[in-house]
Amino acid sequence: MNASIAPLIGSQIPSPVKRTVTRLSRVAFCGSALLVSFTALGSVPTLKVGDAPPDVFGKSSTGQVVHLSDYRGKIVVISFWATWCGPCRKELPVLVNLEKQATREKLIVLTVNWQQGYNEFRQIMKIFKDMGTDITLISDEHGRAGAAYGVKGIPHMIILGRDGRIAAIHVGYSEEQLPVLVDEINSAWSKISPEGSHPN
Question: For the chain, how many structural domains are there in total?
Answer without folding.
Answer: 1
